[in-house]
Each structure stands twice: as C-alpha cells, then as structure tokens.
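Complex 129.
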Amino acid sequence: MGNTILYIEDNPDNMMLVKRALEARGYVLLEAFNGISGVSLAEENEVDLVLLDINLPDIDGYEVARKLRSSSKTALAYVPIIAVTANALKGDAEKALSAGCDVYMSKPINIRELWARVEAFVPAPEQKK
Ligand code: MN
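Predicted structure with manganese (II) ion bound:
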C-alpha cells in the first residue's frame, strides 16, 4: 500500500493547511482545485485515499464521489473517500455517505482529527516499520 492522498479542495488556505499537516506525517499529497480535475488525477495516479470538499466550483463533492465510484478504473470503487463538509447541516453527511463517501468530517479542519481519520485507512509512513 502506498501513501498518496488526493485532496480535492478549492480553498487555498485549507489546501495549504492539509498539505503541511499530511506531509509532516510523510504522506504525499496530490492537489486538485476543482471536481473534474480531481476525478482526472484519481484516474491517472495511484491514489490511496481521497479527501473531498463538498462545495467546489464546478461539480460538487457528491458528484465527484459518484464519478469515482462508477469509474472504469476499478480501484476507485474501493479507494477510501473522506468528505469534508462545510456546514454541519444534518443532510450533508447523509448525502456524502449515500454518494459513496466512507466517512465525513466537518470544517473547520481539526488537524488531530484529520490525522486520525486518515490513519484509520492509510498508516502514516513514518510509523511504518
Ligand atoms: Mn470549497
């Protein structure tokens, strides 16, 4: 198993925060700033986990999740997807899960929660033997 994480997020501040936090643990981060390019990156690279913002400038995160799950690249049917929802409205989480996301976390992003959520699927490289 690799250690490559794709983050699909249009907010540059969140992107930088997550990039620093995950690279500090030894992960490799691929960055996509809209939904369509995120799907393309997932299809063109070996990705071990997807972090997915819901509010994106082109297609929303629910649509991204559905595209990943129905991709002709079969690995994307199983890649873990963590949705990052901006508003804690109850429907968001349920919509994310029904679109194919495995879990969700809400903004603002808490670094310790982020590490824990990611590590539940992909062990941190610096902790591997
Ligand atoms: Mn956004």
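Residues 10-11, 53, 55-56 surround manganese (II) ion (CB under 6 Å).
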